[in-house]
Specification:
With 178 residues, this protein is mostly helical. It has a single domain, classed as 2-Layer Sandwich (Nucleotidyltransferase, domain 5), CATH 3.30.420. The chain has helices at 2-8, 48-58, 76-85, 99-105, 108-116, 118-132, 140-177, and strands at 22-27, 33-39, 66-68, 88-90.
Amino acid sequence: MAHALKLTRMGKSRPNVELGRRLLIATDQYQLIHDYKVMTGGNESAEIIPLADRLLNTLPAGQLISVSTDRGFSSIENRELLELEIPQVIIPKKGKTSQADRERQSEKNWRKQANKHSAVESNINALEHHGLDRCPDRGEANYKKYIGLGVLSYNLHRIGWHLQEKERVKQRRQKAAA
């Protein structure tokens, strides 16, 4: 019986699970995570306004120029509230789109920003590779601590990568000048 179970899982004793819980993250243009939250409820659209408030209070004035989310955060009220404080709001509409929404979503700048949103999915995948694939601690508080450590590890990795890239560019320029 155990052998048949292994075959249905393709030989893996523990099949992959994406984090087990939904994780809300806010990243910048350098893919650094500025804010995160372990989501316990089912209503994603209720989370976007508190997230934007936290970011507006944390970042310097005028720093937050665009917000991009997936369809789960979509609501007319959210979009209108965000547009009061943030110049560019990229939230695709749930369900069938109206003519006005199609025109708004077909603008070149809107499409460009919406395409950049796919980087968030790769950031979540990178979190799995920085220790969040499995949580050895038990309990809700320890789980949230573990998520925080994973975000810290991810950010340190990104900062290190940027510093190494800066050094590589410097070395290339020195070789070209010599």
